[in-house]
Design goal:
The structure is a homodimer of 217-residue chains. By secondary structure, chain A is an alpha+beta fold. Helix content of chain A is 42%, strand content 24%. The structure holds a DNA duplex (30 and 30 nucleotides).
Chain lengths: 217, 217
DNA sequence: CGACGCTTTGACAAACTTCAATCCCCGTGG
DNA sequence: CCACGGGGATTGAAGTTTGTCAAAGCGTCG
């Protein structure tokens, strides 16, 4: 299912109005199929991206196939511009999606060097903040805390208590540093505790936000 | 023991020559005792720091006392300037140490706005890179891989195969997302495999770098 | 309606943690 | 210089959490 409902991007990930406009006017609109690569690990980074519809994951693979997902990106959010020269993670489409792509140098010229630099700095900082939260989650939280954190974080980011998951269990697991089986068990447990309700595997609603927040720590 | 041998900081963490000079001339030299706080979580971030001697850790606490260490910093390296407005991690002295402290605004004026912005951008990016490596370590590596990664990473950063650890086992454990017992067991295992040699708990030498690199993945 | 892929569940195994005891530095004081 | 004391480190045994493997369930899409 394509993630297509419109909503505002969280402030920390949105372009400022001017650059946003530039991007919409000058950017190239590209469509990617589910699981298609948008850019690769160790690829040169001279493009910036913005999700129009659908959703994106960034991930890194180990030689034996283990995978860590860095983050997910939703409509209105930018990604790929935190790299200095080369990407450290690859980016792939979570589902069929439309992405606005623009040369960094073009945006730099169009938006002005100062505005561009400020924008990149803000984006990099918000990326770092989010990565540091993720670090605490992976280093010190239990499986149930990780899943609770994920659900509440997603709901906050999407500004809604009822969310459609754009990713499957494997993507959640690779984001949370768990296996799909453990993720599934924790979700079952959260439902049994009447903290969240699921309608199918992809649609959930937070039934008890205080309890969920408590479980996420 | 104070970590005082002189060496060059890795390029990615060093100030460029001009700013470095400014910092040495204008910065305030402060000494911190072991475990003393340099700045606190959620404190305003308007100062930048540079390690002169000793070593520093950044860490975040959960309400129940679980701790995640973000990174360690060594002589010549800067820290604390990646925050936009507030620190997300606190910083503490790993051992008695000397830190150069300077107001960000002062460096901004002295070094020039452009040079300052570039410097902050470079520092933030290197911080993000390191944090992303850390993410993979915490999310997808086994205990032995984590310890191997830590040792080889430390040796690379210090540019030597023989290193004195400035931190105790608890700090290593909180960086690696493990317990001190597990860290200790993995170290014992690495010694038994003749991959590293320890002289006391704080002094080690890499005996088989290829094997260690393989174990770190 | 049927088949395929994803998710859930169960039983078992492995990895890591916990708790407790012992050891070993290392610094101090006799 | 050596004995002693203490804090951190190591080791062991048992427990818990999470992973693995296998089977069954469910939904979605032809």
């Amino acid at each position: 299912m394509i993630q297509s409902q419109a909503f505002a991007a969280p402030a920390h990930l949105a372009l400022d109005a001017g650059a946003d406009d530039v991007m919409a006017r000058m950017g190239l609109r590209m469509t990617f199929a589910k699981d298609e690569e948008i850019y690769g690990q160790d690829e040169d980074a001279d493009l910036i991206y913005r999700v129009v519809s659908g959703a994106v994951r960034t991930s890194r693979l180990m030689s034996d196939g283990r995978r860590q997902i860095g983050d997910f990106y939703y409509p209105g959010e930018m990604f790929g511009l935190e790299a200095v020269k080369q990407h450290r993670f690859s980016a792939e489409a979570l589902c069929d999606c439309v992405i606005l792509v623009l040369k960094a140098s073009a945006l730099r010229v169009a938006a002005g060097e100062t505005a561009y630099d400020r924008m990149v700095q803000v984006a990099t900082n918000s990326e770092l903040d989010r990565t540091q939260d993720h670090l605490l989650l992976l280093g010190r939280k239990s499986a149930s805390e990780r899943v609770a954190s994920f659900l509440i974080g997603l709901a906050d980011r999407r500004r809604s208590d009822a969310v459609t998951l754009p990713m499957g269990r494997q993507d959640m697991a690779d984001y949370l540093g768990l296996t799909i089986e453990t993720v599934s068990r924790m979700l079952t447990q959260l439902q049994a505790a009447l903290v969240v309700e699921f309608a199918g595997a992809r649609q959930f609603r937070i039934a008890n936000r205080a309890a969920l927040a408590r479980m996420a720590d």
